[in-house]
Amino acid sequence: xxxxxxxxxxxxxxxxxxxxxxxxxxxxxxxxxxxxxxxxxxxxxxxxxxxxxxxxxxxxxxxxxxxxxxxxxxxxxxxxxxxxxxxxxxxxxxxxxxxxxxxxxxxxxxxxxxxxxxxxxxxxxxxxxxxxxxxxxxxxxxxxxxxxxxxxxxxxxxxxxxxxxxxxxxxxxxxxxxxxxxxxxxxxxxxxxxxxxxxxxxxxxxxxxxxxxxxxxxxxxxxxxxxxxxxxxxxxxxxxxxxxxxxxxxxxxxxxxxxxxxxxxxxxxxxxxxxxxxxxxxxxxxxxxxxxxxxxxxxxxxxxxxxxxxxxxxxxxxxxxxxxxxxxxxxxxxxxxxxxxxxxxxxxxxxxxxxxxxxxxxxxxxxxxxxxxxxxxxxxxxxxxxxxxxxxxxxxxxxxxxxxxxxxxxxxxxxxxxxxxxxxxxxxxxxxxxxxxxxxxxxxxxxxxxxxxxxxxxxxxxxxxxxxxxxxxxxxxxxxxxxxxxxxxxxxxxxxxxxxxxxxxxxxxxxxxxxxxxxxxxxxxxxxxxxxxxxxxxxxxxxxxxxxxxxxxxxxxxxxxxxxxxxxxxxxxxxxxxxxxxxxxxxxxxxxxxxxxxxxxxxxxxx
Length: 607
Description:
The N and C termini lie far apart (212 Å). Strands 2-1-5-4-3 form a five-stranded antiparallel β-sheet. Helix 9 packs antiparallel against helix 10. It is an alpha+beta fold and 607 residues long. It has 13 helices and 17 strands. The chain has four domains: 2-108; 138-228, PAS domain (Beta-Lactamase, 2-Layer Sandwich); 246-347, Beta-Lactamase (2-Layer Sandwich), CATH 3.30.450; 387-588, Histidine kinase-like ATPase, C-terminal domain (Heat Shock Protein 90, 2-Layer Sandwich).
């Protein structure tokens, strides 16, 4: 009986352990967590081993109840070994599981701490967002999909003149707002009925929070900008009014010189409507004024000055020249970069013409003054010429008359005839000088009535008229041919040179002539000390006299020679004869011998 009771108890326990093992292992197998849940696997295995062990005990009891006392003992040994293995596995697994649980608990603690930190950060961000939202300088509204305000900051309430919280639940559309996503400028009505210009930026925010989908509206007050814009528009309108109605021509051009705009006065002044609009200022500027205008523009662009003023000329399409007074300034942006030039043009054509007329009158006045000075100088020269050149023939005339008066009766007939001939020559010379002076006075300047003159005859006549000095005509004068000169003036030239040689030179005076290419040279030489080298450049100047000279004179003789020779188209020069001085008169050649002049009497003047 005892054996059967033990059998029944083991069967019940085995069934219970088996049911528990199946209840633990079946969900693990069904969910595929048999390998990932070692603790469940170990627990199910322990209950299963217990069920097996009690089953073996039940089997042993059956053998004993059946009268088999010698039933094998290996089932119990197997059960004991299996139970010991399962227990050892469970103990090791429990330690691992405990460590795993401690790690899991630590991880859970860290995760909880992270969640708390994130929550705190979220709360701080919410507080910061609320602070930024509430204290933002521009109005901000959160509007629900039904068009009602969910939340509004203080700036939005102040902007619309509503007490704090008064905008919540209201519809911005009732204030004239359009809340379509995007950016636009609008006018919203305030609580007092006035309107305020605003710039609205609206965006749609999709969210899972209490607000759900909603609109975020940022509203910027444009009152100051609108006032500034109105001021700019008013200034622009004022400038436009001044620009268009100004009587001065006004032009706006780019820093590169391209014409952008011209007012009506400028278009009339430059006749821009009579042809295609010029692209560059240089196309309407007088060519002679382009360079200095460009230089002024470059100086302004380099920052050396703010603008420039100048008087210049423009060319109209028909070629007419317009004189203007131009004033130009350069407008720069806040960074200093050039924007455009603004130019004012004042028509000064009438003034320029008046100035030109005044200048022409002044020029004529200067010319008249020059003529007066020349006339005055001419009169002085005439007086000097009379006093200088009349002295020589008058002295000769007086000397010959005195000789004839004293010794005329005792003179041989031939000598008396020669004396009378020389007296007539001297008288003729005086008459010629008087006629020349009168002609010069009437003409107002020294002129020459040139005609062919034989060089040799001119020299012979000059030698015959000399008084107080021995004059010789060198051989070869006939070969010099004929020259072009005023006969009377030529005798005056030669007489002055001979008189100058007698006064300042020494020894006999030699007269010679030679032909040169294109002309004839007449030479007058003395044998005196010559002219100091330092004084040579001043020989032919009016009133010049060599320093240290003992001879008397006015210093006009050689000056008159130069003027008379120049009037005939010739030139006179000085040469150092070593010893003595040589004056060379070069006159144009006549090209053919002229009519022969009567030679003077062969008598030579002697000291």
